Amino acid sequence: MFGVRANLRLPVALVAALVVAEAGVVLLRPREVGPAPAPVNARAYFSAAELERARDFRRPQLGLFALRLGVEAGVLVLLVRRPPRRLAALARRPVLGVAAAGAGLALVVGLAPLPLEAVARARAVDVGLVTQGWDGWAWDLLRSQAIGAAMAAAGAVALVALARRFPRRWWLPASGLVVAVGAGFTFVAPVVLDPVFNDFRALPAGHVRADVLELARRADVDVGEVYAIDASRRTSAANAYVAGLGRTKRVVLYDNLLDEFSRDELRLVVAHELGHVHHRDVPRGLLYVALIAPFGLFAAQRLSERLSPARGTAEALPALALSLALVSTGLTFVSNQLSRRVEARADFFALRLTGEPRAAVGFQRRIALRNVSDPDPPGWVSGLLGTHPTTLQRIGAAESFRPGEAPRPDAALRRTQAGS
User: Fold this and answer.
1) CA distance 160 to 123
2) Got the DSSP string for 64-80?
């Protein structure tokens, strides 16, 4: 009987983590996501050549992405099955040894799929999506790997220290650490990490800044600051995002979005980002992490113990890294449901604030073409990997919108689930 219970501990922990993640989605999902998207046909908005170009680009990219994940997982599996002897030697220096092991592990896993990343990048260059030279890419890669290695070193020291202090319960204090670190990075990243890779400039006086302030006033939002970044030196893609907490809160717009899209389209994008600020989506995202972190880390602890007998040393890191990667991947598939609902609500907020469904339809078409996106990817792709509604779902939502129309969240939920 004891053996049966022991064997069930891992699957029970894994299932519990997924169930809690799904419960978090239900608890925190937005209700006001607008009217049900109208059924639309891709051929009504995109030519056959445009659809073929997007699919010819995106589907092999998806395959390369899966291969990269497979290589990373394969490296970790190999390190778990045959731990390098150097890991045992590093155990003699508890802090520096663990930090070196964590940094080394991050570098090995990060660099192993580099040839596949280069192939994916070359394909993006071929379609005009990437504008940066290979030397610039190499410099970005060097900096990102260095930052990742430093973060991995600090994380490894913290987790190993907790595993030594709380051998059977380290997942509990680690959960609090994950939330605290997540909040801390959300606060400092816009002013410490992001400027390492991009130049930021506050929007100067002009119609764009005036529109931002006017929309923020109407939305009753303290927008913080609005910045433009020099994204065009890396990509022809256009985008915008919200980042930061408190004093570092900001809306960031790509420079090619500002330079090459109409005023109505820019207003729509700004209104969408203001929707995230209005609904406090960044703090709510941290709340979701706080809900699922204990169960996810508990499952990762169970899995790492099954994979390796090592405890509280550098030798335990490969099994722990593999366990965290597997568990977090499953939780991400679940949490993407919440992300899509949050983005749908921001779309609806933008439509209500601007009253411009025609601009929304035009923008979704232009952004899909510019980013070489598949407007209607396979259901399993959008359901597992999609953080936003598909382009067709967003066009359908704009087509069904009528200014002043009350939201119908139940109908929208059914249609969104069906579309995923």
Assistant:
1) 41
2) HHHHHHHHHHHHHHHHH
